[in-house]
C-alpha cells in the first residue's frame, strides 16, 4: 500500500467518526520517522477509541497488519504508528496541553476536507 493511500484511508476513517480540527503534515524530506503526521481531536475517550478502531479496520481491509498503538483504554491521547503515517488522536484537553503541531511546523500542512 502506498503512503498516500494509507493517508487517505486514515483521513477517511477520522472523518467517518467525526474527528475534529484534523490536520495533516507532509514530512517527506524532513522527518526520517514518517512521511505524514496526522492529528485530530475527539470529544470523549469513547470517540477517541472509535476513531482509532476505524483507522485500524480500514487498514486491515487493505491488508496492512503491521502497526503499533501507544496509549491505554483510559488515555486522553492515542498514537497509531502505521509506518509512513503517524496518527495522534487527542481529547480537547490533551491536545491543548501537548501542542504537537509546534513539533511539525517545518512540515507542509496539507489541505484536507473534514
UniProtKB/TrEMBL annotation:
Note the Pfam families from the entry.
Answer: RsfS
Could you give a GO molecular-function term held by this entry?
Answer: ribosomal large subunit binding
GO process terms (BP): cytosolic ribosome assembly; negative regulation of ribosome biogenesis; negative regulation of translation
Q: Where does this polypeptide localize?
A: Cytoplasm
Is Cytoplasm among this UniProt entry's keywords? yes
Q: Give any Gene Ontology cellular component.
A: cytoplasm
| Keywords from the named record | Cytoplasm, Repressor, Translation regulation
User: Any idea what job this protein has?
Assistant: Functions as a ribosomal silencing factor. Interacts with ribosomal protein uL14 (rplN), blocking formation of intersubunit bridge B8. Prevents association of the 30S and 50S ribosomal subunits and the formation of functional ribosomes, thus repressing translation.
* Oligomeric form and interacting partners: Interacts with ribosomal protein uL14 (rplN).
Protein family (similarity comment): Belongs to the Iojap/RsfS family.
* NCBIfam families noted in UniProt: rsfS_iojap_ybeB
Name of the protein:
Ribosomal silencing factor RsfS
Instruction: State the taxonomy lineage.
Output: Bacteria, Bacillati, Bacillota, Bacilli, Lactobacillales
Amino acid at each position: 500500500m502506498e503512503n498516500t493511500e494509507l493517508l487517505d484511508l486514515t483521513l477517511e476513517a477520522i472523518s467517518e467518526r467525526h474527528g475534529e480540527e484534523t490536520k495533516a503534515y507532509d514530512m517527506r524530506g524532513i522527518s526520517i520517522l514518517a512521511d505524514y503526521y496526522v492529528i485530530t481531536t475527539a470529544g470523549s475517550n469513547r470517540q477517541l477509541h472509535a476513531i482509532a478502531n476505524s483507522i485500524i479496520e480500514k487498514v486491515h481491509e487493505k491488508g496492512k497488519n503491521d502497526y503499533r498503538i501507544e496509549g491505554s483504554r483510559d488515555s486522553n491521547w492515542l498514537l497509531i504508528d502505521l509506518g509512513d503515517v503517524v496518527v495522534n488522536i487527542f481529547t480537547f484537553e490533551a491536545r491543548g496541553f501537548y501542542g504537537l503541531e509546534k513539533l511539525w511546523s517545518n512540515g507542509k500542512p496539507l489541505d484536507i476536507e473534514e
